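Technical note accompanying the year-one report. For the benefit of new consortium partners, we illustrate the data format agreed upon in the data management plan: each record pairs a sequence with a structure-token string. No post-processing was applied to the example shown here.
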Amino acid sequence: MSGCMNACGHHHVGNIGILGVDKNGSEWYQISLGGAQGLQASLGKVIGPSFAAADVPDVIANLIAVYVEARHPDEAFIDTVRRIGIEPFKERIYAATH
């Protein structure tokens, strides 16, 4: 999670990246998926419009639910994201919050 005004890279390399943004004095959060560090480094992809602070816990719960439903035994979150893409995660969280 990062709230850096200079877009520091923490959220870019997180399997689930969360970037805090200010919209008219309110806290909002942009979510990205698929970031990783190490030998298979990658930058996460923003899944869509940002979420109000109050919605973020439900967003994370829905991301985890998709992972649990779609994963293969012993498969890491990042491997599931790479295998199925971000669309199933995106569909679930935007359906649940809108």
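Partners are asked to follow this layout when depositing records. Residues 13 and 36 are 5 Å apart (CA to CA).
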